[in-house]
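User: I'm curious what two different proteins look like when written out as structure tokens. Can you demonstrate?

Assistant: Sure. I'll show them one after the other, since each token string lines up with its own sequence. Here's the first protein:
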Amino acid sequence: MRAEALSLGLELLGCARGAIADALGVAADPGTIDSPAMTERGASFVTLMQDSRLRGCIGTLEAHRSLAADVRANAVAAALRDPRFAPMRAGELRDTVIEVSVLGPAQSVAPRDEAELLAMLRPHEDGLILAWRGRRATFLPQVWGTLPSPVDFLRELKLKAGLAADFWAADMRVATYRVDKWSERDAALARAR
């Protein structure tokens, strides 16, 4: 990992952990904002893991505020407002591994049918957004780790959007994106080298 990318990642992770700690009333280092990227508009997802299991994940698909503000807001939302989980308690923070993903721009694609979309997907590289008549869902590229088959990846994303697994409509909007991601686990390993 390049030094400047590692530095940005450490800032993002510190920003996320500091925001969660503040929201939970736990003393923590508030982190620094030295990188110019932190003040530019950015879209992020913050994922929380405990014992290698998802504990929360909230994010933003479009950049509309500074990256630092986006990470802070999404970190607190992942800890306290992910509807799949009870709000995090202060004692859980020390056992939580944080991952921050910064989204690149979404690229609209217009496949003729599901088979063409499946052929377009780049496993382990593409995040995917599906939208249809007020329903929208996304999977980060990291989800390929648990759903490595494009067929399964797409099927589960449709279900997440509240659509049938075999659903397809000509007016469904589809976009792909890539992310840069940093995990506290990976950052600790990089610093140890």
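Here's a second, unrelated protein for contrast:
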Amino acid sequence: MRNVIHFPLQSTMADSIPTLASLDMRPYLADGALPSDLNGKVGIYAIFDQAQTLQYVGFSRNVTVGLVQHLVRCPEQCHWVKVHTVERPSRTLLDEIRNAWLAENGAVPAGNSDAQLAWEKPIDAKTFMTDAERQEIADADPTEINKLLKQVARRVEVDVKAKVEARGAQMPIKFNPKLKEQGILALK
């Protein structure tokens, strides 16, 4: 369910806030890669699904890194993107732009409400454990738990990479090996 929101704009910021409608809709992936002109740029972005319905609005100190993380975490929802880069970033400005875009959309997308953790946090492979894996960990010697969690993370990693590849991405996806022992898939 989408909530209608109204965010007031600070008058000092309103002049530097582009409307979401004024930005070009760009393919998330072109020839298997993210837009190369965004690498190393600070900016704010709106991510859309295949039907061009807004899914998430976020910002990053490196737009490319942020977009890769979202593609890995929510590949089915990442088909289109609108981006605004900023030369002199400030958290206040980026928050104002996000609020303006969410207000312009008329509803908060799931990625900024109910599904926010899926969009913003590393993948917790433990949430994808089978009943058999849960039982194996419950019955395991405490010294074996990290090994078993790593196995679960590796299994989930294969699924995640397959979904990203199915979207047409041709970029290397590497997860932090130390966090796999905790059942966490976080990009390196």
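A detail about the second structure: The first strand starts at residue 26 and ends at 27.
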